[in-house]
Write a structure and sequence with these properties.
Helices cover 34% and strands 22% of the residues. By secondary structure, it is an alpha/beta fold. The chain folds into 3 domains: 2-43 and 215-290 and 398-448, 3-Layer(bba) Sandwich (FAD/NAD(P)-binding domain), CATH 3.50.50.60; 46-64 and 77-84 and 205-210 and 294-382, Polyamine Oxidase, Chain A, domain 2; 105-200, Guanine Nucleotide Dissociation Inhibitor, domain 1. The chain is globular and about 70 Å long. α2 (66-74) packs across α16 and α3 packs across α7 (183-192). The structure holds flavin-adenine dinucleotide.
Length: 449
Amino acid sequence: MKEISTDVVIIGAGMAGLTAATQLIAAGRDVVVLEARDRVGGRVHSEIHDDCLVEVGGQWIAPDQEKLLALLDGLGLETYSRYREGKNVYVNGSGENRQYEGEIFPASPETESEIVRLIELLDKLSHEIDPAQPWEHPNASEFDSVSFASWLQQQSQDQEARDNIALFVAGAMLTKPSYAFSLLQALMMAASAGGFNELVDPDFILDKRVKGGMHQVPQGLAERVGFENIHLSTDVKSIVTAEGNVTVTAENLSVQAKHVIIALGPHLLTRIDFQPALPSVKQQMAQHLSSGQVIKVQAFYPSAFWREKGLSGTAFSPYQTVHEAYDNTPHDYVGGTLVGFVSDHVADDLYAKDPTERKKAILDSFAAYFGEGALKPTVYYESDWVNEVYTRGAYGTSFDIGGLTRYRDSIRSSVGRIHFACSDIAGIGYTHIDGAIRMGEAAAEAVLA
Ligand SMILES: Cc1cc2nc3c(=O)[nH]c(=O)nc-3n(C[C@H](O)[C@H](O)[C@H](O)COP(=O)(O)OP(=O)(O)OC[C@H]3O[C@@H](n4cnc5c(N)ncnc54)[C@H](O)[C@@H]3O)c2cc1C
């Protein structure tokens, strides 16, 4: 087994780990990064399929994601806006296709005003929440003990309004059913994105993309770290702390360091053998954070046929297989691209089908929004993050009911020389690239303190 000594060993070459590495190198520390996959970037990844660049993971940037915007600037990467001209589409529970402008889905006047009322209420509550410490809210225990679905039921008799409000956080963000997480987790999600109003506004939350793909960001960071300091295909199995040092071991490599930063999804901590064991409450915490499930589907067409019909490509429905869809045409692509998302139990049901049936169900759903032109893409790609052993779901992890308040002190706390970084333990930018950068910086600061 090869043995290396360094100042800091970082596990995971996603955005959090690579950010921590660049910060520590800038502070004069020697750093070794160990990455299980044969590539850097983690949940930020692109692939080429039939000559089309497919951004399989994180791709969008909101205007308030200052850390990510600053990093793009530093790396000399340019952005472009998501296409949003024309009308959006909403498909209601009876399958009616309704085109609309503005933010509120076209339903009956009563349902529309109920949706507006619930958004205002949730926006107000989300502004009372500090996303880094949601447990400090005076009603945190109460908010963390009720599911988002039950709370919505207490607030409104209008099922269509409830279904749509639930969608913003459940299917669209945490990618779990709204009965599986608490009101506090929902409010924290909204607060981390700037508030509930921002969360429901696709023009804000899905504002811009990187020309040439988001994968260039981790690639650029890895170049700053130096590929000679990054060991790919190195799946860390154990971490031993003894005599003021930490020894991190993978199959063929052992690294001794003064500090370790674990920069991976907190639910994956259970794959690593710690000696001495992590505090029991931290181990429990890792088991109460679980991944959501979403299939990101991209379909490429010879032309953006929906634009020709005056449609923006933005579509929503809590009643469709694809609960949200957008025009995802890359800035330099001659045709048109749609992206759609299939979440939580709907995705479970689709995974029970064979791939041909699954594709048909998804394209039928695109067609319900945009017409029959959607049925015959030239290139079609479905992401599958659940079967990625070093991620196990998408977009990120969230607590089950009561977890946020119960594990409040363990979420970001270091354990001796062991520090933690990941978008999934972020306050601002929670489960987003911006949050991964913030947590990478915080872990580097903890090492340097
Ligand atoms: C489909 C999808 C769409 C998304 N869309 C957006 C978006 O539009 N905008 C946005 O801001 N965010 C988006 N996100 C979320 C964003 O991509 C993530 O929040 C962010 O990239 C997480 O970075 P991270 O470094 O914290 O974790 P990760 O990217 O998960 O990095 C962890 C790294 O650790 C490695 N690893 C795991 N276990 C081990 C081990 N035992 N030993 C060594 N290495 C290990 C993994 O391989 C991985 O490289 C999306 C995510 C997905 C999946």
